[in-house]
Structures are given as C-alpha cells and as structure tokens.
Amino acid sequence: MADESLFNRNLVTLGIRHRELAAILPEIPANPDLSIIKSRKGPLVPVLRREGHAFPMHSRFDPVSEGNRIAEEAPEGYLIAFGLGGAYHLKALLKKQTVTGLMVVEKDLSLLRAILELIDLTGLLSDSRVLLVIDPTPEDLSRIVLDRYLPVLYGNLGSITLRSRWDSNPDWFTRRAEALRGLPEALGRDYTVQTRFGRRWFVHTILNLSRSEKVSAILPPARRLLITAAGPSLEQQLPEIQEKHSKGATLLATDTSLPLLISRGITPDIVISIDCQVVSYHHFLKGLPRSTVLVLDLASPPVLTRLTDKILFFSSGHPFSLYLNRLYRPFPILNLSGGNVTHAAVSLAQAAGAKEVHLYGADFSYPFGQAYARGTYIYPYFQSRSERTGSSEDSFWKFIRGSHPRRESNGEMWRIRTSFMDHYRESLEDAVESMNLNLIPAAGSGVPIRHRYIKKQGSTGKSGRVIPLLSAGPITIRWKDFLEDYAGRLESLPPLNGPPQDYLAELGTENRQAWATLLPSAATFRSDSKDGPSSVEDARKWTLGRIRQIPR
C-alpha cells in the first residue's frame, strides 16, 4: 500500500539535491508492477513483475545482510551503482568513508515514484555523495560521468550491480554499462598525464603570458592543406608533398617532422608544437624558416616562444588555459584529446577552414621496427648518447620496448604496433567523423587510417561558408592584472573541508571555475597528500607561490 506521507518525506529530501527530479516526480504515476513484501527478517523488499515473472530486488530472507556483503565486496572511490531497489546495498556503502561518490542509475521515473512511496530513503537521499540518474541514454550516462567524476578528488572509478534488479531489465542495463566500459582506461590515461605535467603546464603558461601580449600571427583560411607527421613513410612521400605544395596547397608540419623537411629544402607554411617538455626544442635545432608561422600551446616551453615573432598561441582544454581564455584574452581552442601532435594538426586544419586535408607520415606504428623518419630529431639525439655498451640501435629498441610492442607481418613487410599507437589512431579516426573535411591519408607502410569522403558541394567544391581568419582575440586585461586578480580569487576561496560535492555546491560560478584550474596541479601532489581535498589545498598554496615568483 502506497504511503503518501512517506512519499512526501522522501520527496522533500530528494529536492535538496535533485530539484528538477523532485519537481516532476509528483506528476508521474507509480509503476503498477512494483509491489512490496516483508522479508523473513522484517525489512521490506520491493518486487518488480515483468512478463509474468517476479523479480525480488533483494534477499527475501535478510536484505540488510545481503546489502552489507555487497558493500564489503565493492571497490573504493567513486562508484556507479546499477539498480536502486530498496537501497540496502547503497546504505551500507555510504557507511564507508572510502566511498567518495555514488551515482545511482535506474531505468524509469515511475519505478522511482513507486519505491519512494513504499520505502524510506531519506538517509540515502540526504547524503551529498549520492547522485540519482534516471533513464539516461548510454551517451548521456557517459557524459554525466565525465562531468561529475574528478579523479584527483574521488580516486578510483568503479561500479557495482544489484544483480536481481539488473536481471529484470538486462538489455537496458547492459547497454549503459557497455557505454562506460572504456571510460576508466581513458580517464586513467588523462589523469596519468596530469600527474606528470600538471605543474609544468601551469608554470609554462604563466611564463608565456607576457609574450602572448606581444605576438599574434594570423592564419588565413586554407581550403587545401597538407599535414606532415614524422613516421618512416614520410621519407617516400616527400616528392608528392613538394609537388602539391608547389601548386598552392598549404603545408602544415608537425614539429617532429620539421627537421626532415628543412634538410630536404622544404619550407612549411605552418609548424605546430604541443609538447610541454623542453625536449621539443630538439625539433628546432636546424632552425625555423623566417616565413613560417609557429603555432604553440600556451603551455609550450617558453624557449620556443623566442624562436620567432610569427607565433599564434592556442588554448587547450586544460582548466587554467580555458580560464585565461575567458578572462584575459580569447585564443583559438584546439582539440588535444588525441594526445599527439598529428591529432592536434588535424584539429588546426579544421579550425583553419580546410576542406581537403592530405596526411603524410602518420604511420601510427613502427614499420620495419623504425620509430621515426630519418632526419628527425631522435636520430642525432640517440647517436649523441650512444657508447660502446649501448648503441643508438639499442636506444631505439628501448624506446619501442617500453610500450609493450607486438609484431605483425603480411609477407612483404612487417611493422610493430603498440596499444598507445592504436589508441592515437582510433582517437583521430573518431574525431574526423565529426569534422566537415575530407581527410586523405597517403599510402605508406603504417597501419591504414579509416576515413570517409564528403561529397563536395557544387562544381567548385565551395560551400559558401565564410571562414574567418584564425587569430587571437583582443586583450581584455593586461597579463599582470589578470594574474593579480586570479591570485586574489584563489586566496579568497574557502578551504576544502568535508565532501567535495557540498563544497562545490556552495561555490559561485566564478569561484568554481577558478578552483577547477587547480586540478591538474593537484594531480601531481596526490601521491604525497593524505586525500584528494588535501592535494587541492597543496596545489593552491603552490600556485600562489609560483605567481609571486613571476617578475612584474
């Protein structure tokens, strides 16, 4: 029997953290297929009837003990819970301080309405760690997890399943679980990069601010563009590149391919560099042609910004980069999610309005065991480090071996593949699917790149769309004043105590955006801090200290 007063108590508690859900739930009829039984030990158990079968959502003997067992076997950190039921397993989980967040996924509102009429969930719904997600599409669920889960704060990302609930709608739950399957690995890769480079990104960015006021090259639209990566196949593709370039195509070189192009007398129109490591300077040891525009991440090593005045800075997806893009000066935003400069170059091609992009040297593997085209930086670099007990060939193999290689052959040629290279290629393929351009990979010895052909519009292939010049926008505030304002906002933030969900809910929009800029640096402190919130506080102190060291 539905209990209206119980439903109202649950609804009031739900409205504290789920206002939209609480507003629409009174208009939703309760699922008539849900009933309640009393377990042998006394606690109530919801039962869902589907297609003539009854599915008790918990043990009919002792649901509390069953819930405790599920909680004991669950991982720590931020958990995705498939199935609400009577929440005995969820209540047990929330007793563990090691559970930093709990996202509960259920199928429909009518089922939630029926449960709230029958079972007291006020304790569950009042916990700030709990987020109810009702009837999401697989894509929406993936997006919500990406928006809510912060590795540095919440630790491990895991999942638990209320098996008896899952079994009543197996197809629905399976599709959502499959949508999340690759997320931990992808998020883990991104977080690992943050732990290595989070502080370096910030330091380089604030050191480059003064330079960003003085330089701002402009890239005109380029409808036909050539991109050179640095794979071994590039050597054989150079004649085709020279021919197309001589006929008016714009040549965009990745920094890794620049030394080879220069040694063959080829001057690229544009060079792009995204690596924050100082080793990227090795790509420019043969010089940078005076006519070439250098496109740099704001977090690039400051030494690169002194190579030329023809620099176009761009903003990546790092929180601090986006923050200054909004409050200091708008820069072009490029997609660096692929984790490599070739992916970034294709993103730049799209931003520049290119419709036809020819891609060279993108092997995404090691043909015949060769890592890069000859003439690139790695050859003199390894040769300078060779000795009698360790040749340059030995260095090449160590370079590849660390990525867990596997060999494949078709009889005529062989190449080495790694999971990292496969991930880079697949990320590029997926990104191009949503771009309005034709990517044409040149034939080579690497792994073939999946691509699609977009039919040209009209006989001339022109879409009629006006492509703006690619450049940085006007300066809103001088960089020195921007840093002062930023430091002042960080100093005014309250300390992060208690559950991060409560803390973030109380911050205003401006403060929340400033706070988010600390997360990549906080990742570098995580291993030495007692928990996620402590690492953010450590990052705030460190960030303020670095700002004070900048001469102004």
Short description:
The chain has about 550 residues and is an alpha/beta fold. The chain has 23 helices and 17 strands.
Please provide a written account of the structure.
With 552 residues, the protein is an alpha/beta fold. 43% of the residues lie in helices and 15% in strands. Helix 7 (138-148) crosses helix 10 (170-179), helix 11 (183-214) crosses helix 22 (519-525) and helix 16 crosses helix 17. The termini are far apart. 40% of the residues are buried. Mean pLDDT is 91; it is low at 458-463.
Topology, element by element:
Elements: H1 4-17, H2 19-24, E1 34-38, E2 44-50, E3 53-56, H3 63-73, E4 77-82, H4 88-93, E5 99-106, H5 109-118, H6 122-125, E6 130-134, H7 138-148, H8 151-154, E7 157-161, H9 163-166, H10 170-179, H11 183-214, E8 224-228, H12 234-246, E9 250-254, H13 258-263, E10 270-273, E11 293-297, E12 311-314, H14 319-327, H15 341-351, E13 356-360, E14 366-367, H16 378-384, H17 392-401, E15 406-409, E16 414-417, H18 419-433, E17 438-441, H19 479-492, H20 500-506, H21 509-516, H22 519-525, H23 532-549
Parallel strand pairs: 4-5, 4-7, 5-6, 8-9, 8-13, 9-10, 10-11, 11-12, 13-17
Antiparallel strand pairs: 1-2, 2-3, 14-16, 15-16
Helix pairs in contact: 1-5, 7-10, 11-22, 16-17, 19-23, 22-23
